[in-house]
Amino acid sequence: MSAVSYAEPQETTSFGSLIGAVAQRVWGEPNKRLSKPGEMRWGNQGARIVYSNTGAFKDTEADQSGGTLELLRHAYGLDKAEAVAWMVREGLIPDRARAHAIKLHPGQRIVATFAFTDATGKVLYRKHRIQPGRGDRSKEFAYDHPDGAGGWRWGRGDNQVPYRLKDLANAPKDAPIYMAEGEAKADRLASWGLIATSSKDWRGYDFSGYVKGRSVIILPDNDNTGAKLADKVKADVERAEGRPVIVHLPRLPDKGDVLNWDGDVAELTALVDAAPAATSSEIRTKPDIALLPVVDASEFAGKTVPDREWGLEGWEPWRSMVFVTGMGATGKSLLTQQRMTCSAAGLPFLGVPVRQGVSLYITCEDPIDEMHRRQESINKALGITWQDLRGKLLLVSLKGMLNKELCTFDAEGRMSTTERWASLKATIAATGATHVTLDNVAHFFTGNENIRNQVAAFAGLVDGLAEEIDGVVILIGHPNKAGDEFSGSTAWENQVRSRIFLGLESTREGEVHDPAARVLTNSKPNYSERGKSVRFLWHNWAFVRHEDVPEDAMREHRAIAEAAYDNEVFLKCLAERDRQRRAVSDSSGPNYAPAVFEGLPHSQGIGKARLKRAMERLFVARRIEKGFLWRDSGKGRDVTGIREVDLGSPNATPNGPQTHSPDTPNQSPQTPPPTHLPPIGGNGAAHEVPAPPHENEAKR
Fold it and tell me: Which residue intervals make up region (Disordered) (predicted)?
C-alpha cells in the first residue's frame, strides 16, 4: 500500500482522540451489552477493548495493545505513514497534500472554485462547483476553509462574507453595486469594471451594512426561481435602507442569465439608466418597516409557465412539507423507510414515480439496529444492494436522546428554534439531502397541538425547510383516539399542502378481511386529485402491490387471508354465545357450533362449511378447547363446551396467531411463515422473497 506525505508527522498519542472512530471502522459496531462509558468492547466475550479516555486499545486474545497507529498496524499491517494515509481516506484527518477538503463521489469533479476573501483580500473560505451533483442534480456546491496549517478543512468556517468583499469594501459610496445570481456571473460583471457580488448566498441582516444608502442593481436569471430570489434580495436591500432596482436583461433564453446574454456593459448601463429608480421614501415610511415581497402579475407575460414538481408524483409537492398519518401498527415507519429507499435508488414507490435524490430518514422511536433489520428486508424485497444506496440513503436514530424538539414556545406563544433544529439543517446541508423524513411529530413538536398558532408556526418552519433545501420533508403523525386521521388542532390539516393516510383495507361496514392488506389515501391533495389511493400488501417485512403479484400466488394469499378472517368470525360468534350463557359443541347435534353460528349476525354470512373449517383450525392452533364453562346452579351441574383459550394464561400455546406491527418484526420460530408473493417487475414493491430471519432474531 502506497503512502502519502503528511506535514509534521505526529506521535501516536496525537491520534488518541480518533481511536474510537478508527476501531469502529476496523471492527464494526461494538458489543453494546459489554461496553460502558469510556470503554468500548468487541466480540462475544469483549476481548477487544478501546479506552476512549486514554486513546488506547487492548486485544487480550492476540496479546496486542497500544494507541491508534498500533491498532491499524495490528489490524491491517500498516506502518505509520500508511496508517495516516488510511485516516485521510476515511475522512478522520485533513489531507494537507490535497488542494481541497471536498469529498467527491465516483464520477464527480470540481469544475470551478470561487474564493471568498476579507476586505484585505485574505481568503476566508472557498466555494466549489461540483458536477454532476448527487441524485438527479446536474451540479452541487461545497465549501472548505484554511485550517491554519497550510491545508483545508471542510465547511465555510465561522465568518461568512459577501462574494468579492474586497471590491465592495473599497468601492466609492456613490458607485452602484451589481448583484447576479451566482459567483461566475458576478465575476463577468466585475470583468466589465463594475462593482459586483452574488445574490445566491446573500444574508440580508448580516450584510446590510454593505448596501445601506447605495443603489443595488439586481439581475435575475430568466426563470421562476430567479424571479423569487430577486424579490427576496430586493426586500433585504430595502430593509437595509438601500435602493434596489431589478433589471431584466432582454433577449435572454428560458433560464438564461448574464453569462449567455449577448449584450455588453454599454447596453447594461443604458438599461439601468432607463429603469425606474426607487427612492428611500418610496421604499419605506419608517426604517423598521419592510414591504412584503410583491410580484407584479404582468411580469409573468411571455414567461413559460413552470411545470409542477413532485417528490412522489401526484402525492408529494416539491418544496413542501407532507404530513403522513396512519392507524397504529399499520407500518408507517416501514412505509416511509421504503419510500425513502425508493427515492434514494431511483425506483418507483408502489408503482408511483418518485424523484431521485439523497434521502435522509430520521427516527426518534427505533434504534439503528431495528432500522438495519428493516432495511435489509427492504433491500432484498426491492432487489437492490447496499452499494446501490451508498451516499444516497442516510439513516439517523435519535432514540433515547434528550432535547429532540426542533422549536420551543414561550409563555406568549412565540416560537424559537433549538440547537436540534440547527443540527438538522447542518446535517441536511452536509449530506445534500433533498428527501427528508421526520419520524415523528410527537418528538419534534413539543408545543400544544390544540393551539392553532403553535401548530401553524411549526408547520411553517418545516415547510420553509423544504423550500430552503429544494426538496420535500415528510412529517409522520398519529391519529387521535376518536379515530380522526390526525390528532390535535385542525391547523395540521390547514397548514400542509398534502396529507397522506395509511390504513387497513376494509369493507364499507369497516370489516377487515385481510390483515395484511393496506391502503394509502391522498386525504388532502392541494395540487392533485383528492381521495386517490394505492392498495398493497404487507409481506415479508416490505410492501407489495396487489397487481404485481402472480395470480396463483395471489389465490394462495387470499385463501390464507380468508382463513384468518373466518377464524376471527368464529371467535366473535363464540364470544357472543358465551355472553348469552349458551354453550356450543364440536359434535353434531342441536348445539353444533358451525350450525348454530351460521344463523348469527356475527357470522357475516360466511356459511356453515367455512365455520367448520375455522373451528378445526382453531382447535389445531389451540385457540379453542373443550372444557368447563360455568356452573348451572339451577340444574346443579357443570356446563361444558367449546371455550376460547386465554392467550395470556400460563397454559396458552405459543402456536396461536399473534398480532404485531409490521414496523417491528416478531420473527418467532413458532410463527408459521407467510405465503411468499413474488410480484412481477420493479415498481418499488417487493419482487423477491426475503431471506429467513437473522439467527439472533429467531432466538428472541
Answer: 640-700
Distance of CA 516 to the CA centre of its chain: 25
- Residue 297 C-alpha cell reads as 402579475
Q: Are residues 468 and 574 in the same domain?
A: no
Quote the DSSP letter at residue 258.
G
Count of the separate structural domains present in the chain:
4
CA distance 363 to 332: 11
3-state secondary structure 572-588: HHHHHHHHCCCCCECCC
**Cis ω before 480 (30° cut-off from 0):** no
- Report the alpha-carbon distance of residue 141 to residue 512 in Å, rounded: 50
CB count in 10 Å sphere of residue 639: 13
Alpha helices in 117-174 (DSSP H): 165-170
Which mean pLDDT values do the consecutive 10-residue runs of the chain (700 residues) have? 30 69 91 90 92 89 90 89 82 70 86 90 92 89 84 85 92 91 94 92 81 92 91 89 92 92 92 69 44 84 88 92 86 94 95 95 94 92 92 94 92 87 93 94 89 87 92 84 50 73 77 81 73 82 79 76 87 93 93 93 88 92 92 90 79 43 46 38 42 33
Handedness of CA 662, 665, 668, 672 (dihedral sign): positive
For residues 543 and 559, membership in a common domain is answered with no
The verdict on pTM exceeding 0.90 is: no
Count CA atoms closer than 13 A to 40's CA, side-chain side. 18
Q: Please, which residues have CB within 8 angstroms of residue 695's CB and are 6 or more apart in sequence?
A: none
Query: How many Cα atoms sit within 13 Å of 580 on the Cβ side?
Result: 10
Q: Which residues contact 287 (CB under 8 A, 6 or more apart)?
A: 241
Q: What is the 8-class DSSP label of residue 170?
A: H
Assess whether 471 and 379 both reside in one domain: yes
Contact 177, 168 (CB under 8 A): yes
| CATH number of residue 275's parent domain | 3.40.1360.10
Q: Give me 205's grid cell.
A: 441582516
Q: How many other β-carbons are positioned within 10 Å of the β-carbon of residue 102? A: 18
C-beta of residue 94 within 8 angstroms of C-beta of residue 147 = yes
Whether residues 629 and 567 fall in one domain:
yes
